[in-house]
Each structure stands twice: as structure tokens, then as C-alpha cells.
Amino acid sequence: MKVLVFSFIVSLLGAGIPASIAQSGSGPANVQTPYTILGTCEDNISALSNAHHLAGEDGTIIAIARLGDGERNRELNSRRLHNVRMYLTEFDWHRPPQTLITAEGEPLKGYGRVELYVRGVLFAALQVKRNQDLLVGSCEPDNIRPVKAERNLYPYLDRKPGRSTKKP
Which of 29, 74, 76, 150 is most buried, judged by most C-beta within 10 A? Predict the structure, then answer.
């Protein structure tokens, strides 16, 4: 009976070793499929936070913004990338700015998006509704959100009327 229990325990330990090697990265590459989401504010924050943690304090994150169908204004890409940069370097994680690279990519079919690359691998593609900003920051309703904290995330909101002055 003791031999049976011993061999059962040894088989369990042996089964756990390949899993731990794959997770540690010292074995074969365990590449995850990046996820593409048309997300809410909370989804975008989660993806950015996960990218920050995966990259580590000194790792590089690359964000590439792409316009989607019907989007012509390149300022949208600039605003989306601005929100990524402000969220990761000032609003929440205070990452060193030199660890974040932003760029504009070619337009694509479907929704516009911001692609996040961590350690040189596509980690996530955050889709954005047509002509909207990438929603990040404080996800509470307008009446309880700390507007002062978000001023750097949405600086265009202070522009003169004529354009929408509501947070997307």
C-alpha cells in the first residue's frame, strides 16, 4: 500500500514539472494568442495593467494605434496613444516614459484599435468604437469621477465648444 501511495505522489510531482517549466519560460516557448476586445473602460485598464505587469518595471511596451473603417482624422490615433501613455506613466502605474514606445500604424478594416506588444510579442489589441477615444482612467460616472485626475487623459475636453465636450 505504501508503494502505491508513493508512486501516486511521484507521478503527480512528475506531471507538475513540465507545467512549471512551461510557465517559467525555460522550456519551449509558451506563446499565448493575443486577445482582441471591443472593451469598456475596465477592460482597457485591465489589458494595460496586465501589459505593465508582464513587461516588468524596465521592460518595453510598444503601443501601435490604427484607424478603422470611416476614420480619417489622424488626431484620433494621437489621442488614443496619448491616453495609453498617460495611463501607464502618470495616471496609474508611473512607468518610466522611456519604457513605452508609441507609433501609428496603417489603417485597417473594422474597428480602430491600439495594439499592445510586450517583449516583442503582440499581447492585446484594444478595439475602439468609430471616432472615439480609448477609454481609460477612472471608470466611474461623471458625477463621482475625479475630473482633475483625468485632465491629462482627455486634454481636448477643455477646447472651445463646437466639438463634443463630453467624455466619450
Answer: 76
